[in-house]
Write the structure tokens for this entry.
Amino acid sequence: MTAPGSTPSAHPEHPGRTDGVANEFTVFTEIKQGEADALRKDLAMLSDAANDENVHAALRQIGTLHDARHVIFDNDTRFMFASVFDGSWDTYIDDFAKTVVGERFDKVFSHSEGFPGIKDPGVKDWFLAHQAPAGVFVSAYPDLTVQQIYKDHRVEEAFEEVLDTPEFRAVLENPANADLVATPAFQKLLAEASA
């Protein structure tokens, strides 16, 4: 079943669905016998590291990851990694190997049967063998890349800062600017800013 706006991957050899610019990536693995607690411990460290500015800097450097989640299930025998990203699947996998995030990937996936390592030439084949496409994938903002979201956030912060200045209030109240302030576009901008 495909949701409206959700299509199979443009790369049939890379399972996963897309919605606009967003792609889903879901991997299911078998946890090595007796390593669920070690995996759980590494996931806890990963969770703590999520607040590390080096991790956030690496994610900004990658610049395509919307979100990610890790789940241990089936009585500690299976592991799921799922994420949403922009761009090509190949680039997404390559980008992780180039940052501190790749080291964390290695640590977490080392508890999965047969994982060769994020920098191993066979890692893409391993991911493909363990990846399953979502039955349905829908993005709340299918036309916005992570980079556009970052930019929109920066612009919003800058605009909010301008809105709070007395100089901006003076511009709004100046009769010489009445025609500009009255335009539908300017009124829409003010309405969106106050929403």
